[in-house]
């Protein structure tokens, strides 16, 4: 294992997820932050770096009683919090701060998504002038644009696509906080209503309220905390197009951004896909784990649909993926990247409800929009 | 289910805001072209790259010497989804395709294929398309595409 310089020493989700009408997005972010601080045995005032997204960091700092020396508010969609983790590591390495709180909250269900209309149609943006009108405001259609072409070129069947939520429902059944825990079938998924053909309703993520927070510091300091450290051993990131501008992707079926992010993450970790024990791939829709498995190098182009349908990522399979049930079945509040990382950390601490025995490495891959942005984080419980 | 707890993504979550395009100085020639029934594309005077969406800087070589050209209107269908119902601003009843269209000049753009059944049988990959304009909301014209029938080829 490469010598990891940074570690997660506090991690927690909001106390409740799903339907949490008593809290706003900021309230969920503060609640998750308080839980992560308790997890790390820290007072807010002891944390000297803060990142958040879609909400003013100064307000979050004030409400938590922090006076951070370093702040970041990178917003590139659902993987923003993964990018903020990379930025936090760089800030710690530069000596700007020692301990960073990364916090996220989104009342996607009860009080509406974060005020991210700037991504989804700021007047005069690329998306707003050239994309959104054609999809009649149906965001799922922009995410799903290349899926029909992918099926045409690779032969992936609609049944194989439908197997993604079926398998993840099996994982969700083992997670008490997951929303959709009843078993489902390929037939039932295919019988759900059309959202944007070939995407049907049961292939779409939930709309939930949730928050999550991480505390990261240098590996040198990471043994001073109550929980065993989870090291960040590799990271990658890449941007390609506007957040809702799928026509700008250079190769829609083999999107370059995930390949670039994966190469950075595996390269910096000194690892290969064969070294990964547990995997989280942000599943806003059923096809995004398919494009992720291929782009990250776990399978070849065209193989991911059968790979999932043949239960390789299911309970008992050789590559357990989205073991909380994913955005499809656990919770999806709008920007799911933070919740991906939370499950990776639970698995490496041995705290997951669907625990993978002996997991030493976990890869969390997040997307921003449709192939607009992505980030890849490789965690390990071994330095 | 949708009234109780977190519901899967559905039609009730459609984004209705800001759908009327707002032009910028850089894109005004494009929209003026559309108003005249032309699809105008940017071409770099330095590296000859034709690109979309419009910009004052070439995404290939960062040159700021940009010319406009009128697209041939010929394109092929790269991929599509079918939305169950069009936004009312289209004046289209029932399903409506959203298409990734590959222009003859090279760039891909998002559009819709109209004047044919909005079905997976009628929307064939790589089919030949031609530019047509349709009204959208208060705009008299936006760029759409229709199949080129065999009789036209």
Structure write-up:
The complex is a heterodimer of chains A (383) and B (153). With 383 residues, chain A is of the alpha/beta class. Chain A has a single domain, classed as Peroxisomal Thiolase, Chain A, domain 1. Helix content of chain A is 32%, strand content 18%. In chain A, strand 5 and strand 6 (199-200) form a beta hairpin. The radius of gyration of chain A is 19 Å and the shape is globular. Chain A starts with 5 loop residues before the first strand and ends with a strand. Chain B is mainly beta and 153 residues long. Chain B has 2 domains: 22-70, no CATH class; 72-148, OB fold (Dihydrolipoamide Acetyltransferase, E2P) (Beta Barrel). Chain B contains 1 helix and 8 strands. Chain B has one helix at 28-35; strands spanning 40-44, 50-51, 66-70, 74-83, 96-103, 108-111, 128-136, 139-147. In chain B, a hairpin with a 2-residue loop joins strand 7 (128-136) and strand 8. The longest helix of chain B is centred in the N-terminal third of the chain and has 8 residues, at 28-35. Chain B is globular. The N and C termini of chain B lie far apart (50 Å). The model of chain B is unreliable at 1-17 (pLDDT under 50). Chains A and B meet through helix 4, helix 5, helix 6 and strand 5 of A and strand 4, strand 5 and strand 6 of B.
């Amino acid at each position: 294992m490469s010598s990891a310089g940074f570690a997660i020493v506090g991690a927690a989700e909001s106390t409740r997820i799903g339907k949490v009408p008593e809290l706003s997005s900021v309230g969920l972010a503060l609640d998750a932050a308080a839980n992560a601080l308790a997890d790390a045995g820290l007072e807010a005032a002891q944390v000297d770096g803060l990142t958040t997204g879609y909400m003013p960091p100064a307000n979050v700092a004030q409400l938590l009683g922090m006076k951070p020396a370093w702040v970041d508010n990178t917003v590139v969609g659902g993987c923003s919090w993964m990018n903020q983790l990379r930025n936090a590591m760089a800030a710690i390495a530069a000596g700007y701060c020692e301990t960073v709180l990364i916090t996220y909250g989104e009342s996607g269900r009860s009080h509406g998504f974060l005020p991210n209309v700037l991504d989804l149609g700021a007047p005069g943006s690329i998306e707003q002038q050239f994309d959104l009108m054609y999809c009649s405001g149906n965001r799922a259609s922009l995410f799903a644009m290349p899926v029909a072409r992918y099926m045409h070129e690779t032969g992936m069947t609609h049944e194989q696509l439908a197997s993604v939520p079926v398998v993840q429902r099996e994982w969700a059944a083992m997670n008490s906080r997951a929303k959709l825990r009843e078993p489902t079938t390929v037939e039932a998924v295919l019988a759900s209503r059309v959202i944007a053909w070939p995407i049907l309703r049961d292939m779409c993520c939930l709309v939930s309220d949730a928050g999550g927070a991480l505390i990261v510091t240098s590996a040198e300091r990471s043994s001073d905390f109550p929980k065993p450290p989870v090291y960040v051993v590799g990271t990658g990131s890449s941007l390609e197009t506007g957040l809702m501008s799928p026509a700008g992707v250079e190769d829609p079926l083999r999107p370059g951004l995930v390949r670039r992010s994966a190469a950075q993450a595996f390269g910096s970790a000194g690892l290969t896909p064969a070294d990964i024990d547990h995997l989280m791939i942000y599943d806003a829709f059923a096809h995004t784990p398919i494009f992720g498995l291929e782009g990250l190098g776990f399978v070849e182009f065209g193989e991911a649909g059968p790979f999932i349908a043949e239960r390789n990522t299911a309970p008992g399979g050789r590559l357990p993926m989205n073991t909380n049930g994913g955005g499809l079945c656990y919770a999806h509040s709008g920007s799911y990247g933070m919740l991906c990382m939370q499950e990776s950390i639970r698995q490496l601490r041995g705290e997951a409800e669907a625990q993978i025995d002996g997991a030493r490495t976990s890869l969390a891959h997040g997307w921003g929009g449709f192939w607009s942005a992505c980030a890849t984080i490789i965690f390990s419980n071994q330095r | 289910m949708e009234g109780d707890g977190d519901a899967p993504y559905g039609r009730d979550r459609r984004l209705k805001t800001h759908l009327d395009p707002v032009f910028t100085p850089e894109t005004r020639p494009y929209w003026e072209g559309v108003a005249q029934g032309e699809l105008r594309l940017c071409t770099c005077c330095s590296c000859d790259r034709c690109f979309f969406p419009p910009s004052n800087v070439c995404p290939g070589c960062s040159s700021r010497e940009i010319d406009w050209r009128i697209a041939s209107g010929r394109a092929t269908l790269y991929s599509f989804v079918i939305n169950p119902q069009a936004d009312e601003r289209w004046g289209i009843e029932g399903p409506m395709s959203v298409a990734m269209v590959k222009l003859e000049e090279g760039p891909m753009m998002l559009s819709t294929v109209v004047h044919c059944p909005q079905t997976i049988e009628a929307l064939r990959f790589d089919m030949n398309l031609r530019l047509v304009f349709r009204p959208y909301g208060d705009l008299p014209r936006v760029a759409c595409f229709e199949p080129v029938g065999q009789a036209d080829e």
